[in-house]
Amino acid sequence: MKLANSFLTYLFFVYLQTGGDAFSASKISATRTCLPLTVTSLGATDNDQTNGDDVSDQVLKSLTEKLDQSKESNPPKKKDNKAMAFLRKVGRVGGAANKSFVNAVGSDEGSTGRQPAAKRQSQGMAKSKAAYQECTKSGVVDDLSEMFPFTSSGTEWRGVSDRVMGGLSNGFIKRETDLQGKTANLLTGHVSLENNGGFIQMVTDLALDPSKSISVDASEYDGVELEVLCRHEPREFNVHLRTPGTLKQASYRFTCKVGEEDKWETVRIPFSSFKSSEDEMPPLDTSALRRIGIVAIGREMDVYLAVAGVKFYVVI
Fold first, then answer.
1. How far apart are CA 200 and CA 100, in angstroms?
2. Within 13 A of 316's CA, how many CA atoms are on the CB side?
3. Which residues of the chain have pLDDT under 70?
4. For tag attachment on the chain, is the N or C end more exposed, with fewer CB atoms within 10 Å?
5. Residue-averaged pLDDT of the chain
């Protein structure tokens, strides 16, 4: 009987050391046959050995039942699939591509310094900067072929609103994978004129590698072309351009009017149509473009503006 109790103590000791995960009925039985001491080796009688075996068998059966019950009530956790989680997060699988990207907050046109990065859906770039072609070489700022929020020319979309100036406008930008048959970046929100505010926008720098140059030379092109869909009233939006010398909270601007509601439309804006928002600024220098912004501005409105492509064009 003492040996049965010793055996029981041993089993509980092993159980505590392993947390119960390493045990099953077969393993408990195997553990018993490998014990260094047996009942017979201690000089017990055949009768004592039989009784001890009966007790041990009962103990083994009881322990096995309890361990099985424990496993049923505490099933093993599934391992995290980090690869799939990442793909869902960046919008390649699941519904992540249709979730809000950022509560668009920042300065209007910002300082001449680079706009700080907003919170991302994705971690890092899809490929190295060396794999991208700068927008003035290809003529394409973004054809939406890269995962959101990156552009196809290797830069990044950001959301900006008037809140840093005390305004009350709020907005979001996100990726829609099938909006009237097209993949698009969607700017939504509300423009408020309270507290001297009045805009939300999505913006991107144009230079691929700011460590080499903070601007691009687009002087070989005649203007900017966008593919847009607008649902808000009035059906208009602004395009803003900045250069390294543009004054703080200023830009070169043009107001686009969209013909039909909820239909894709191609809009072309000649560089000559962009006018400075400050009288003291010189005419737009297209040989040093730094940033482009697509903006809802100037009046109280609920915004719904989708952009399926941004590029430069040449008149032939």
1. 15
2. 0
3. 1-64, 66-126
4. C
5. 76
